[in-house]
Amino acid sequence: MRLLPRSLLGQVMLAMAAALLIAQAISATMLYRAATERREMAFMHAAAFQLLSGPRHRDARKARMMRPPHMMPSRRDGTPRVRLPRSLRYSETTRAPLAADAPRDQQREAELARLLRSQGISVGEIAISVQPFLDDPVLREAARDFPRIRALVETVPHEVMVVALKQEGSAVWQVARLPVPPLDRGIPRTLVMQTLILFLVLVGLLYFVLRRITRPLDALAERTRRFGSVGTPEEPLEASGPDDVRRLIEAHNAMQARIGSMLDEKDVMLGAIGHDLKTPLAALRVRIESVEDEAARDKMAATIEDITETLDEILSLARIGRTDTEPEMTELGALAASVVEEFEDMGRPVTLEAQGRIAAPVHLTWLKRGLRNLVTNALRYAGSAHLSILREDGQAVLRIDDDGPGIPEERLAEMLEPFTRGEASRNRETGGAGLGLTLARAVAEQHGGTLSLANRAEGGLRAEIRIPT
Predict the structure, then answer these.
(1) Pick from 263, 467, 304, 227: which is nearest to 370 by CA?
(2) Which residue range or ranges hold the Histidine kinase domain (predicted)?
(3) pTM of the model
(4) Within a domain: 93
């Protein structure tokens, strides 16, 4: 399964989405750390304020009865805040303010010590512990006297930060308690909404811009593909998109017109050459009938026939791809059977094996010509041929096997080039003109496929035409 898109539009959109998500993740991390640091700094200042202002309110607090804790207005995310009465927010004791097993927060202790010293306080010892609300003995006792605090804490779980300070030369611990509310859930929600809005806006704008670029490029690619397969010029493609793409389309239109004109001139020239050569060859064929020596006459006739067939192959090779007709959906087994029947009628040993019904869009005449050339090549060098039609990897495979001597590995690629023969003689019964495999390769490429040659492990040569179905 292909996970990454292959189109320009898909790759740019994926890259943009990945970049946006990475940037937002970095931004979210930085914002979250900044919010956490501000929250932590606020706690430290609040703890320092409680410790510094507590003694000034001690006498007034003794004169009043302890009031129950109450809820403060909710935060932005809807979580209510707990406010402790003044008697719980600050107290003094000579006993250890924290239980022996209470967790200590050494980082906060060092930060608070630095903050208090900056205010001129002589710090002897500091102890800070963050624990569940009801794990603190003082608050647990207060919860028994005030059921409202127990109900509130059970509904909205809070933690409490117990801060204890013993100044130098003093035996009294100053203790401050600050409720620690849950983390503000509004920050992640805001970041998620911000990411979604940015993503929708950027994706929408980028998609609009990219489609304006890729749509004419897609049309240009399809037009180029059609021109490369059939070689027939079409109406000029309408220039659209940005100026760069417009110039590319205009250049393609000019190039296509020029190539089309050259191909038309080539066809005219080849037609004239074929006519000008075949006419004197036909006349020469008639004249040799007056030659009395039968052996010489047969040799001259064979030479004229050889030249005529070579000329036909050259003209056919030049015309491949220059057709206005659309390929027809054809059952390849039936097509191969018709080719095999032609050789059977001539008494040549050719067999056929087809694996089910396999159809593909083909130019019937040209594909038959390519198959004939491959079968003829097998018969020439091996004396027999076996034709198979099968499907592999989503392609139709037309395979011709023989039991001949094969081809040296270093010459396999060379044999597909024009005028290359496996046998040095130019005799058509042995060496041929060296255009049969080249013509078959051109037929395969005309159908968007390939022709390959390989030596069989059991001996002989295997030629395969692979075309998409």
Answers:
(1) 467
(2) 272-469
(3) 0.48
(4) yes
